[in-house]
Design goal:
Layout (H helix, E strand, L loop, with lengths): L24 E8 L5 E10 L12
Antiparallel strand pairs: 1-2
The structure holds zinc ion.
Zinc ion binds next to loops.
Amino acid sequence: MAARKPSTTRKTTKQQPCPHCTTGQVSESFKVGGRRKHQSDDRQEALCLTCFGTGQTPE
Ligand SMILES: [Zn+2]
């Protein structure tokens, strides 16, 4: 009678997706025009500083 070994519950380091982005990049609006704080409709892709471009939360 072989006792079944319970599958060792491995603590999988499941990476959580970054709450601030999805692909490690965030599109942020940037201001154009020196004096006039004109908000451009254009967006530029910027590296997400929360996950450093990995798309997952660190740790
Ligand atoms: Zn991120």
